[in-house]
């Protein structure tokens, strides 16, 4: 059994990126490895999230975060 750090980018609203990360983690865990996900967040992305435009899409973001929570915090 190996300890694996999976470096990925799934900060934005991209269901495909989240599902790909989840599938990779599950595959590696099923092979007996211990997986830690490292979510790479670029500082520009974090600043963009705090902009006015992003707050107008709050419902969309909250649904996406709920989806992520359901996938990764089981």
Summarize the structure.
This protein is of the alpha+beta class. Strand 1 (3-8), helix 1 (15-30) and strand 2 form a beta-alpha-beta unit. The chain has helices spanning 15-30, 43-49, 52-56, 58-72, and strands at 3-8, 34-39.
Helix/strand/pairing category: alpha+beta
Q: Rg to the nearest angstrom?
A: 14 Å
The major pleated sheet works out as:
2 strands, parallel
Tell me the β content. 15-25%
Enumerate the spans where pLDDT stays under 50 for 5 or more consecutive residues: none
Cα end-to-end separation:
22 Å
Enumerate the strands of the largest sheet in spatial order, edge to edge or round the barrel: 1-2
Specify the overall morphology: elongated
Helix content: 55-70%
Question: How many strand units?
Answer: 2
What's the rounded overall pLDDT mean?
78
List the total number of helices: 4
Spell out the helices and strands N to C: EHEHHH
Structure description:
The protein is α+β, with helices and mostly antiparallel strands. It contains four helices and two strands, in the order βαβααα. The chain has helices spanning 15-30, 43-49, 52-56, 58-72; strands at residues 3-8, 34-39. Strands 1-2 form a two-stranded parallel ribbon. Helix 1 (15-30) links the parallel strand 1 and strand 2 (34-39). The longest helix has 16 residues, at 15-30.
